[in-house]
Amino acid sequence: MTTGIKQAGRGNNYISPIVYLLLFITYCLHSSGCTYKKIEKIIIQPESPAVSVSSIIDLISERNNKIKNIRGIANINIISSNSTQRVKEAIVVNGDSHIRLESLNITGQPSLIMVSDSNAVTIYNINENRFYKGDASPEVLHKITGIYLSPLEIANLLTGRQSIENNRIEDMHLAKENSAYILRTQSSGSKSYNEIRFEPTNLSTTTIKSYDDTGKIVKFITFSDYRKAGEYLFPFKRQILLPPRGLSMTVEYTDLEINTEMEESIFNLTIPEDAEEMEMN
Protein backbone atom coordinates (compact mmCIF):
# COMPACT_ATOMS: atom_id res chain seq x y z
CA MET A 1 0.00 0.00 0.00
CA THR A 2 3.05 2.27 0.16
CA THR A 3 3.94 1.82 -3.52
CA GLY A 4 2.63 5.19 -4.62
CA ILE A 5 4.67 7.02 -2.02
CA LYS A 6 7.87 5.25 -3.03
CA GLN A 7 7.25 6.11 -6.71
CA ALA A 8 6.66 9.79 -5.90
CA GLY A 9 9.90 9.85 -4.00
CA ARG A 10 12.13 8.69 -6.93
CA GLY A 11 15.46 10.35 -7.63
CA ASN A 12 15.98 14.10 -7.50
CA ASN A 13 15.92 14.41 -11.31
CA TYR A 14 12.53 12.84 -11.68
CA ILE A 15 9.85 15.19 -13.10
CA SER A 16 6.20 14.22 -12.83
CA PRO A 17 4.17 13.97 -16.07
CA ILE A 18 1.80 16.50 -14.60
CA VAL A 19 4.62 19.05 -14.43
CA TYR A 20 5.39 18.39 -18.11
CA LEU A 21 1.76 19.02 -18.93
CA LEU A 22 1.73 22.35 -17.07
CA LEU A 23 4.94 23.46 -18.77
CA PHE A 24 3.50 22.55 -22.15
CA ILE A 25 0.31 24.55 -21.51
CA THR A 26 2.32 27.56 -20.35
CA TYR A 27 4.50 27.38 -23.50
CA CYS A 28 1.41 27.28 -25.71
CA LEU A 29 -0.12 30.26 -24.00
CA HIS A 30 3.05 32.32 -24.35
CA SER A 31 3.38 31.36 -27.99
CA SER A 32 -0.16 32.44 -28.80
CA GLY A 33 0.04 35.67 -26.79
CA CYS A 34 -2.61 34.44 -24.35
CA THR A 35 -0.74 34.60 -21.08
CA TYR A 36 -3.04 34.71 -18.08
CA LYS A 37 -3.80 38.16 -16.69
CA LYS A 38 -5.62 39.02 -13.51
CA ILE A 39 -9.12 40.11 -14.40
CA GLU A 40 -9.87 43.48 -12.82
CA LYS A 41 -13.44 44.58 -12.33
CA ILE A 42 -14.03 47.73 -14.35
CA ILE A 43 -16.38 50.17 -12.68
CA ILE A 44 -18.21 52.22 -15.25
CA GLN A 45 -19.52 55.47 -13.85
CA PRO A 46 -22.88 56.52 -15.27
CA GLU A 47 -22.67 59.54 -17.50
CA SER A 48 -23.94 62.68 -15.81
CA PRO A 49 -26.63 64.45 -17.77
CA ALA A 50 -25.64 67.76 -19.28
CA VAL A 51 -26.02 70.42 -16.62
CA SER A 52 -26.35 74.03 -17.69
CA VAL A 53 -27.98 77.21 -16.47
CA SER A 54 -31.00 76.64 -18.71
CA SER A 55 -31.41 73.01 -17.61
CA ILE A 56 -31.28 74.05 -13.94
CA ILE A 57 -33.85 76.80 -14.50
CA ASP A 58 -36.12 74.35 -16.34
CA LEU A 59 -35.76 71.83 -13.51
CA ILE A 60 -36.65 74.42 -10.86
CA SER A 61 -39.70 75.52 -12.84
CA GLU A 62 -40.78 71.90 -13.30
CA ARG A 63 -40.48 71.15 -9.59
CA ASN A 64 -42.29 74.35 -8.65
CA ASN A 65 -45.18 73.46 -10.94
CA LYS A 66 -45.46 69.91 -9.62
CA ILE A 67 -46.25 70.93 -6.04
CA LYS A 68 -49.69 72.54 -6.09
CA ASN A 69 -50.38 72.29 -2.37
CA ILE A 70 -49.23 70.63 0.82
CA ARG A 71 -50.89 69.61 4.06
CA GLY A 72 -48.96 68.38 7.06
CA ILE A 73 -47.79 68.55 10.66
CA ALA A 74 -44.41 70.01 11.56
CA ASN A 75 -42.34 70.82 14.61
CA ILE A 76 -41.11 74.42 14.38
CA ASN A 77 -38.35 75.99 16.46
CA ILE A 78 -37.89 79.76 16.34
CA ILE A 79 -34.78 81.13 18.02
CA SER A 80 -34.10 84.83 18.50
CA SER A 81 -31.60 86.76 20.59
CA ASN A 82 -33.91 86.78 23.61
CA SER A 83 -36.33 83.86 23.23
CA THR A 84 -36.90 80.35 21.93
CA GLN A 85 -40.29 79.11 20.72
CA ARG A 86 -41.09 75.46 20.08
CA VAL A 87 -44.47 74.76 18.55
CA LYS A 88 -46.25 72.03 16.65
CA GLU A 89 -48.01 73.42 13.60
CA ALA A 90 -50.76 72.10 11.36
CA ILE A 91 -49.80 73.46 7.94
CA VAL A 92 -51.80 73.98 4.76
CA VAL A 93 -50.31 75.79 1.76
CA ASN A 94 -52.07 76.21 -1.57
CA GLY A 95 -50.49 77.92 -4.56
CA ASP A 96 -47.94 80.68 -4.08
CA SER A 97 -49.08 82.28 -0.85
CA HIS A 98 -52.38 80.93 0.51
CA ILE A 99 -51.44 79.68 3.95
CA ARG A 100 -53.21 78.33 7.00
CA LEU A 101 -51.15 77.69 10.13
CA GLU A 102 -52.56 76.31 13.38
CA SER A 103 -50.38 76.27 16.48
CA LEU A 104 -51.37 73.12 18.37
CA ASN A 105 -51.38 72.72 22.15
CA ILE A 106 -50.42 69.56 24.04
CA THR A 107 -53.87 68.08 23.40
CA GLY A 108 -53.57 68.67 19.66
CA GLN A 109 -56.10 71.51 19.58
CA PRO A 110 -55.33 74.85 17.88
CA SER A 111 -54.42 77.73 20.18
CA LEU A 112 -53.57 80.25 17.44
CA ILE A 113 -54.73 80.28 13.81
CA MET A 114 -53.27 82.30 10.95
CA VAL A 115 -54.63 82.49 7.40
CA SER A 116 -53.05 84.64 4.73
CA ASP A 117 -52.75 85.41 1.06
CA SER A 118 -50.09 87.57 -0.54
CA ASN A 119 -51.67 90.84 0.68
CA ALA A 120 -53.49 90.39 3.98
CA VAL A 121 -53.37 88.21 7.05
CA THR A 122 -55.90 87.24 9.70
CA ILE A 123 -54.64 85.90 13.01
CA TYR A 124 -56.84 84.69 15.85
CA ASN A 125 -55.48 83.86 19.29
CA ILE A 126 -58.05 81.44 20.67
CA ASN A 127 -56.69 81.42 24.22
CA GLU A 128 -56.85 85.21 24.50
CA ASN A 129 -59.87 85.66 22.18
CA ARG A 130 -57.97 88.38 20.31
CA PHE A 131 -57.46 88.84 16.58
CA TYR A 132 -55.56 90.84 14.02
CA LYS A 133 -56.64 91.48 10.45
CA GLY A 134 -54.65 93.61 8.03
CA ASP A 135 -51.23 94.02 6.45
CA ALA A 136 -49.27 90.82 5.87
CA SER A 137 -45.82 92.40 6.15
CA PRO A 138 -42.88 90.54 7.73
CA GLU A 139 -42.87 93.10 10.56
CA VAL A 140 -46.49 92.36 11.49
CA LEU A 141 -46.08 88.59 11.28
CA HIS A 142 -42.95 88.77 13.40
CA LYS A 143 -44.72 90.68 16.18
CA ILE A 144 -47.50 88.10 16.42
CA THR A 145 -45.91 84.81 15.38
CA GLY A 146 -42.17 85.39 15.66
CA ILE A 147 -41.74 84.65 11.93
CA TYR A 148 -40.04 87.51 10.09
CA LEU A 149 -41.11 86.53 6.57
CA SER A 150 -43.73 87.57 4.04
CA PRO A 151 -46.55 85.10 3.18
CA LEU A 152 -44.81 84.30 -0.13
CA GLU A 153 -41.52 83.60 1.67
CA ILE A 154 -43.33 81.41 4.21
CA ALA A 155 -45.08 79.48 1.42
CA ASN A 156 -41.80 78.95 -0.44
CA LEU A 157 -40.05 77.83 2.73
CA LEU A 158 -42.78 75.34 3.65
CA THR A 159 -43.11 73.89 0.13
CA GLY A 160 -39.45 74.06 -0.87
CA ARG A 161 -40.23 76.15 -3.94
CA GLN A 162 -37.67 78.60 -5.32
CA SER A 163 -38.67 81.90 -6.89
CA ILE A 164 -36.73 82.41 -10.12
CA GLU A 165 -38.22 84.72 -12.69
CA ASN A 166 -36.31 84.55 -15.96
CA ASN A 167 -37.26 88.04 -17.09
CA ARG A 168 -35.71 89.60 -13.97
CA ILE A 169 -32.48 87.65 -13.94
CA GLU A 170 -29.53 89.65 -15.23
CA ASP A 171 -26.57 87.41 -14.48
CA MET A 172 -26.39 83.65 -13.98
CA HIS A 173 -23.32 81.49 -13.43
CA LEU A 174 -23.14 77.75 -12.84
CA ALA A 175 -20.05 76.23 -11.26
CA LYS A 176 -19.12 72.86 -9.78
CA GLU A 177 -17.53 73.05 -6.34
CA ASN A 178 -16.92 70.27 -3.82
CA SER A 179 -19.13 67.84 -5.76
CA ALA A 180 -22.03 70.30 -5.89
CA TYR A 181 -23.48 72.60 -8.51
CA ILE A 182 -23.89 76.26 -7.57
CA LEU A 183 -26.19 78.59 -9.48
CA ARG A 184 -25.68 82.31 -8.93
CA THR A 185 -28.46 84.67 -9.95
CA GLN A 186 -28.52 88.45 -9.90
CA SER A 187 -31.60 90.56 -10.55
CA SER A 188 -31.72 93.51 -12.90
CA GLY A 189 -30.63 96.84 -11.46
CA SER A 190 -29.39 95.30 -8.21
CA LYS A 191 -26.06 94.21 -6.76
CA SER A 192 -27.76 91.70 -4.46
CA TYR A 193 -27.65 88.09 -5.57
CA ASN A 194 -28.54 84.51 -4.62
CA GLU A 195 -26.46 81.34 -4.63
CA ILE A 196 -28.36 78.05 -4.90
CA ARG A 197 -26.45 74.84 -4.25
CA PHE A 198 -27.58 71.54 -5.80
CA GLU A 199 -26.65 67.97 -4.87
CA PRO A 200 -24.88 66.52 -7.95
CA THR A 201 -26.65 63.15 -8.38
CA ASN A 202 -30.31 64.21 -8.51
CA LEU A 203 -29.90 68.02 -8.45
CA SER A 204 -31.96 68.42 -5.28
CA THR A 205 -31.57 71.82 -3.64
CA THR A 206 -29.44 71.80 -0.48
CA THR A 207 -28.84 75.49 0.31
CA ILE A 208 -29.94 78.95 -0.77
CA LYS A 209 -27.85 81.96 0.25
CA SER A 210 -29.08 85.51 -0.31
CA TYR A 211 -26.57 88.37 -0.28
CA ASP A 212 -27.23 92.11 -0.10
CA ASP A 213 -25.52 94.68 -2.32
CA THR A 214 -22.54 94.83 0.06
CA GLY A 215 -21.93 91.07 -0.13
CA LYS A 216 -23.28 90.22 3.33
CA ILE A 217 -25.52 87.19 3.83
CA VAL A 218 -29.06 88.28 4.70
CA LYS A 219 -30.78 84.91 4.37
CA PHE A 220 -29.47 81.34 4.52
CA ILE A 221 -31.80 78.38 3.90
CA THR A 222 -30.86 74.71 4.09
CA PHE A 223 -32.95 71.76 2.89
CA SER A 224 -32.24 68.25 4.17
CA ASP A 225 -33.73 64.85 5.06
CA TYR A 226 -35.04 64.24 1.54
CA ARG A 227 -37.60 61.44 1.49
CA LYS A 228 -40.34 60.20 -0.77
CA ALA A 229 -43.74 61.74 -0.13
CA GLY A 230 -46.01 59.90 -2.51
CA GLU A 231 -44.30 60.28 -5.89
CA TYR A 232 -42.27 63.32 -4.83
CA LEU A 233 -38.80 63.63 -3.33
CA PHE A 234 -39.33 66.19 -0.59
CA PRO A 235 -37.06 67.81 2.03
CA PHE A 236 -38.69 66.98 5.36
CA LYS A 237 -36.37 69.37 7.19
CA ARG A 238 -35.44 72.94 6.39
CA GLN A 239 -33.79 75.73 8.34
CA ILE A 240 -33.71 79.45 7.66
CA LEU A 241 -31.24 81.88 9.20
CA LEU A 242 -31.74 85.65 9.09
CA PRO A 243 -28.41 87.05 10.39
CA PRO A 244 -29.43 90.75 10.30
CA ARG A 245 -32.42 89.92 12.53
CA GLY A 246 -30.62 87.43 14.75
CA LEU A 247 -33.36 84.89 13.96
CA SER A 248 -33.37 81.24 12.97
CA MET A 249 -36.27 78.90 12.29
CA THR A 250 -36.25 75.15 11.80
CA VAL A 251 -39.21 73.31 10.27
CA GLU A 252 -39.29 69.52 10.52
CA TYR A 253 -42.28 67.66 9.10
CA THR A 254 -43.63 64.63 10.92
CA ASP A 255 -46.57 64.10 8.56
CA LEU A 256 -47.07 65.32 5.00
CA GLU A 257 -49.43 65.05 2.05
CA ILE A 258 -48.81 66.66 -1.34
CA ASN A 259 -51.37 67.68 -3.96
CA THR A 260 -54.50 66.62 -2.12
CA GLU A 261 -57.95 68.04 -2.75
CA MET A 262 -58.81 70.98 -0.54
CA GLU A 263 -61.64 73.48 -0.41
CA GLU A 264 -60.99 77.21 -0.67
CA SER A 265 -63.03 77.74 2.49
CA ILE A 266 -60.15 76.32 4.51
CA PHE A 267 -58.46 79.70 4.07
CA ASN A 268 -61.43 81.59 5.50
CA LEU A 269 -61.31 82.39 9.20
CA THR A 270 -64.43 83.46 11.07
CA ILE A 271 -63.70 85.63 14.09
CA PRO A 272 -66.12 85.51 17.08
CA GLU A 273 -68.07 88.73 17.55
CA ASP A 274 -66.81 89.19 21.10
CA ALA A 275 -63.13 88.87 20.12
CA GLU A 276 -60.88 91.85 20.86
CA GLU A 277 -58.87 93.38 18.04
CA MET A 278 -55.11 93.55 18.56
CA GLU A 279 -53.44 96.94 18.41
CA MET A 280 -50.32 96.92 16.24
CA ASN A 281 -48.05 99.81 17.25
Would you kindly provide a written description of the structure presented here, covering whatever features stand out?
- The chain has one domain: Lipoprotein localisation LolA/LolB/LppX (outer membrane lipoprotein receptor (LolB), chain A).
- It has 5 helices and 14 strands.
- By secondary structure, it is α+β, with helices and mostly antiparallel strands.
- The model is unreliable at 1-12 and 19-48 (pLDDT under 50).
- Strand 9 and strand 10 form a beta hairpin.
- Strands 7-8-9-10-11-12-13-1-2-3-4-5-6-14 form a 14-stranded mixed sheet, covered by helices on one side.
How is the topology of this model organized?
Elements (H helix, E strand, L loop, with lengths): L2 H6 L8 H15 L21 H14 L2 E11 L4 E11 L3 E7 L5 E7 L3 E6 L4 E6 L2 H8 L5 H9 L9 E9 L2 E8 L5 E6 L6 E7 L5 E13 L2 E11 L4 E12 L17 E2 L4
Parallel strand pairs: 6-14
Antiparallel strand pairs: 1-2, 1-13, 2-3, 3-4, 4-5, 5-6, 7-8, 8-9, 9-10, 10-11, 11-12, 12-13
Helix and strand composition category: alpha+beta
Q: What is the CATH architecture term?
A: Clam
Distance between the ends:
112 Å
Low-pLDDT regions: 1-12, 19-48
> How confident overall, as mean pLDDT?
80
The helical percent reads: 10-25%
